[in-house]
Amino acid sequence: xxxxxxxxxxxxxxxxxxxxxxxxxxxxxxxxxxxxxxxxxxxxxxxxxxxxxxxxxxxxxxxxxxxxxxxxxxxxxxxxxxxxxxxxxxxxxxxxxxxxxxxxxxxxxxxxxxxxxxxxxxxxxxxxxxxxxxxxxxxxxxxxxxxxxxx
Length: 151
Known about the structure:
Blueprint: E1 2-4, H1 7-20, E2 26-35, E3 38-44, H2 61-73, E4 81-89, H3 99-110, E5 119-126, E6 132-140, E7 144-147, E8 149-150
Parallel strand pairs: 1-3, 1-8, 4-5
Antiparallel strand pairs: 2-3, 2-4, 5-6, 6-7
């Protein structure tokens, strides 16, 4: 699966990562279906409350309102525009998801109230020259996952 990250979203992430420094931050990803196995990130949120040096906890109240506004702006076309997943930073660690990250994402795809067939986790950080690095993992029900391609 390909996940396209537009330059405007990449710049938003870079700015937030610089501001957060060595603390983890994150948010949700909202996207557009482009073609089979190809999605584009249309919007992302940045949770105001950062995490610690080694963890980030998404606050449920930080999700609902941005999703509602996104659905309204996109005309409730859920098959084209929808929740893609989540993102967070690993400023001091690898861009691979931790076991805690994996379990959290499997909870998302297993929650009938969410109704997701899959969920994307984008883990990002700034490298030594402050360029954005990121890795995408796709989570499926039944504790399945596979690597995606970030474009």
